[in-house]
Input
Amino acid sequence: MMTFDAPGEFVAELPDHPTVEPVPFLVADQADIEIPQPGDPLPSAPTPTFDDPKGVTLICTRAVDCSFHEIDLVDAVANDKPTVLLISTPGFCQTDICGPVVDLLIDEAGDRTDLNVIHAEVYVDPSDFATGGFPDLTPAVNAMALPFEPAIFVAAADNTIRARLDTTFDRSELRDALSLV
Output
């Protein structure tokens, strides 16, 4: 892990590997980041369930629906259990990441009754893509201010975020995050 003294634009280079292109990246001041961070409260937002899709046309775009649509995030943050929220759209993934992270979460937390585990899709009605439009984002995506996916938020029973995993992560990183609650 690297620590930066100030926000700014930086470039990562591998001098011993001249065929690897330099990668520019930004470092922001944490106060300027809208996405909830570890230590922040997990925002509440309605999420669709099997019993109440809340206007979301496809509550799970995985080939076989995952089981993480039993409880609404609004209810989860009020029930004194730790909560794991995965925002991902496996059926519309452009990077081959969104689907596998759902499978990882199924493997690591699918049978845990001590947690609220919720999968929220990104789009209210993805069929809008077919007509040339851009679908509305679900309330969970908006509440988390996410400009990307997938993302996992792991919150303790008091709803304090203990870990957040963004975009790419492996089984060991997920296990480490889950071990914090």
